[in-house]
Amino acid sequence: MIALWPVAVPHEAAAVDAATELTMRQIAPGVYVHQGRQEDVSPANHGDVANVGFIVGASCVAVIDTGTTLHAGEALRAAVRRATKVPVCYVINTHVHPDHIFGNAAFADDAPQYVGHARLPAAMAARGANQLHALLRELGDAAAGSTLVAPTLLVDPDRTLDLGGREIRLHAWRTAHTDNDLSVYDVQTDTWWLSDLLFVGHIPVVDGNLRGWIAVLETLARMSPPAHVVPGHGPIDAPWTASIATERAYLDWLVHGVRGALRDGRTMQETVDTLGVDPNSAWLLVDTFHRRNVTAAYAEYEWED
């Protein structure tokens, strides 16, 4: 049974028409990606801020993340139907953040299996109502009809899905960007969908554990670069080594700065107010997310041995 956690959202005329065509790019045979905008969620962009897409096999389609609202999910479903008549068998959520999950209900008529990290259902149950209320506040009618759909096919630590002559391999990571990060690897095209384990351009957002995220990046840095990589935010197929190193540098900067503030006896608020971003970096959305990241880092390292 599919678990639903609805929140009362007025279903009036939506700001985003379900038939709106979503621009898709086929980055490899059968691998389609829509690149979201490098912006915070707003009425002007209708929440189109994350990279979403799908992989087509001979018998099944796997959708990977579904966008910020029901209407975003409907636009993605329409893009699937334009590309193929193969049924949608799987809807995979890479983690709990709203811009990746609230389009799930758009695929209900396909009766897919909803797939996620083993810890994703608990994260949805704990956060979902507040997240959806926040979407209504931020997007108004564009969030109309949005509902949480929890995964029932869980990954811990690995699972392989057969799309019909095409295998995709899922991996549930240790706590990093969140405590429920999932990656998707398409064997046929050597495409790795890292979602928010990798930010390109958009400043990384810390909602899990810096130690864990840095350890994940160390693991990725030792691997051979894939033919294609899809980050959660930012350009597709950005240089593998440089992208990982740039993200790692920001996380290291956070850790170094917070540890220094703690040694100096600064409070959390003082640290948030004074710890800026490395002036040599060129991250987008610093004003939106950096102070939150400093808060998270301070809380993590405050009682470090």
Can you give a write-up of this model?
- It is built from seven helices and 14 strands.
- The protein has helices at residues 70-83, 98-101, 120-139, 210-221, 240-263, 268-274, 286-301, and strands at 3-5, 25-28, 31-34, 52-56, 61-64, 88-92, 113-117, 148-150, 153-155, 158-162, 167-172, 182-186, 191-199, 228-233.
- The strands form three sheets. Strands 2-3-4-5-6-7-9 form a seven-stranded mixed β-sheet, with no helix packed on it. A five-stranded mixed β-sheet has the order 10-11-12-13-14, covered by helices on one side.
- α4 packs antiparallel against α5 (240-263).
Question: Quick summary of this structure?
Answer:
The strands form three sheets. The chain has a seven-stranded mixed beta sheet with strand order 2-3-4-5-6-7-9, with no helix packed on it. It has helices at 70-83, 98-101, 120-139, 210-221, 240-263, 268-274, 286-301, and strands at residues 3-5, 25-28, 31-34, 52-56, 61-64, 88-92, 113-117, 148-150, 153-155, 158-162, 167-172, 182-186, 191-199, 228-233. A hairpin with a 4-residue loop joins strand 12 and strand 13.
Q: Considering DSSP H and I runs of 4 or more, what fraction of the residues is helical? A: 25-40%
Record field, number of beta strands? 14
Separation, N- and C-terminal Cα atoms: 45 Å
Mean pLDDT: 93
- Rg (C-alpha, Å): 19 Å
Keywords:
22% strand; disordered N terminus; 305 residues; alpha/beta
How would the blueprint of this fold be written?
Elements: E1 3-5, E2 25-28, E3 31-34, E4 52-56, E5 61-64, H1 70-83, E6 88-92, H2 98-101, E7 113-117, H3 120-139, E8 148-150, E9 153-155, E10 158-162, E11 167-172, E12 182-186, E13 191-199, H4 210-221, E14 228-233, H5 240-263, H6 268-274, H7 286-301
Parallel strand pairs: 5-6, 6-7, 7-9, 13-14
Antiparallel strand pairs: 1-8, 2-3, 3-4, 4-5, 10-11, 11-12, 12-13
Helix pairs in contact: 4-5, 5-7, 6-7
